[in-house]
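User: I've been trying to design a sequence by hand for this structure and keep getting stuck. Would you show me what you'd pick, starting by listing the structure so we're on the same page?

Assistant: Good idea, let's start from the same input. This is the structure you sent:
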């Protein structure tokens, strides 16, 4: 079978899919962590792989950047490929100096100004959406067992990376309680909620809008490895 954006047999995709933004990161994850890997998608170079982690099946596929992109891929995976769980594994920019670079964050809520949810559903939808409670609890348990500290909080899911104003992060932090920004979780959570599926979002802090510090690709690797271990614990 295939959908407009994924060409794979249903049996080639596991019930749990990890989604980094970058399809080449999906390849690196498959090469580094998984055994018995098959590639299930090459359409638009949005690579997807399935393999085993500690003997259990798991898939990993790029989501692209932004809600329009993850909205398409997560919808097709949930609805057409009957995927049960999608865990976004991404990076974020800190809105508060209480977050340090490399911190690993588990999103407890996603706030957005985006019309994605309302346009998708044809009705007014809340500006704050939640991930799967069960999945978040399972990720927390895994992080505890691995001794990996998780920071939890409400995330800002933004449609815009380059804003005209410079201090918007301060207003958003104060008015909406959002601790960091990324660009995909709101659409992912909405799709999971309307399709009765499970979604979660793990992030590492890659830059700070407060201090303007930024990580280098090499530095990101260690924090990324910790986040990966937590996410991979959900292989089934
Ligand atoms: N803005 C939006 N998304 C991001 C950022 C950012 O500063 N950093 C990592 N993902």
């Amino acid at each position: 079978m295939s959908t407009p954006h994924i060409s794979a047999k249903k049996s080639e995709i596991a019930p749990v899919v990890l989604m980094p933004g970058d399809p080449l990161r999906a390849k690196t994850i498959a090469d580094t962590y998984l055994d018995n890997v098959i590639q299930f998608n090459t359409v638009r170079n949005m690579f997807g792989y399935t393999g085993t982690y500690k003997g259990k099946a798991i898939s990993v596929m790029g989501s692209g950047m932004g809600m329009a992109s993850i909205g398409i891929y997560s919808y097709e995976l949930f609805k057409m490929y009957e995927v049960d769980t999608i865990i976004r594994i991404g990076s974020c920019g800190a809105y508060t100096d209480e977050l340090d670079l490399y911190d690993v964050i588990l999103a407890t809520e996603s706030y957005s100004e985006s019309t994605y949810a309302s346009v998708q559903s044809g009705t007014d939808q809340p500006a704050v959406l939640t991930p799967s409670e069960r999945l978040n609890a399972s990720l927390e348990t895994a992080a505890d067992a691995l001794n990996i500290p998780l920071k939890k909080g409400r995330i800002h899911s933004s449609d815009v990376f380059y804003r005209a104003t410079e201090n918007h992060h301060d207003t958003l932090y104060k008015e909406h309680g959002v601790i960091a920004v990324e660009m995909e979780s709101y659409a992912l959570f909405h799709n999971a909620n309307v399709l009765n599926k499970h979604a979660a979002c793990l992030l590492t802090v890659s830059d700070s809008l407060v201090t303007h510090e930024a990580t280098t690709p090499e530095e990101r690797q260690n924090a990324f490895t910790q986040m990966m271990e937590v996410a991979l614990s959900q292989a089934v």
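That's my pick for every position. To get oriented when you compare it with your attempt: Helices lie at 23-33, 67-80, 116-121, 133-145, 168-176, 185-194, 217-232. The chain has a mean pLDDT of 96.
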